[in-house]
Amino acid sequence: MKLWMAGLGLVAMMGAAPIMDAVAQSNLGAVVTERREGLKAVGDNMTAIAAVARAGGDPRGTVERIAAVQAFFPTMGARFPAGTQQGAPGIDTRALPAIWTDRAGFDAALAAMGPRLAALREAAASGNVANFQAAVQATGAACGDCHRPYRAR
């Protein structure tokens, strides 16, 4: 009787494995969707910030946008768990495998954004257009330092 119950339990677990895999994949898919939406919001904010810089406008109106970008970045590294790279089953992403094979470089690129965003926010809050324009340029360079090696076009 015990052997029969153990066998039934094993069959039940084997039948659950594809279901558990599907749940894990859907959770990973949700991570990628959330990551994509967050990065799109960051891009939209940075585009608006850069437009103010190009126009030589008053940067103080961009402080809230910069704060929104700053709020997103502390959790950025955690938004790239294993299984969310290109080619993973059920995953549609532009994140390159280098994120996972060069994690130290990726983490360093992310870490560089914190001080750049802080300087950008400070320059925006000051209202100094020249400082703001320089900070936008420096922040954009930090964005490129991550996009070039870690994101497919």
Q: What are the defining features of this structure?
A:
disordered N terminus, 5 helices, mainly alpha, single chain, 153 residues, Four Helix Bundle (Hemerythrin (Met), subunit A), 75% helix
Q: Care to describe what's here?
A:
The chain is 75% helix and 0% strand. With 153 residues, the chain is an all-alpha fold. It has one domain: Cytochrome c/b562 (Four Helix Bundle (Hemerythrin (Met), subunit A)). α4 packs antiparallel against α5. The longest helix is centred in the first third of the chain and has 54 residues.
Q: Write down the domain tally.
A: 1
User: Shape, please?
Assistant: elongated
| Mean residue pLDDT | 87
The CATH topology is Four Helix Bundle (Hemerythrin (Met), subunit A)
Short recap of the structure:
This protein has about 150 residues and is mainly α.
Question: What is the topology?
Answer:
Elements: H1 2-55, H2 63-72, H3 98-101, H4 103-126, H5 129-150
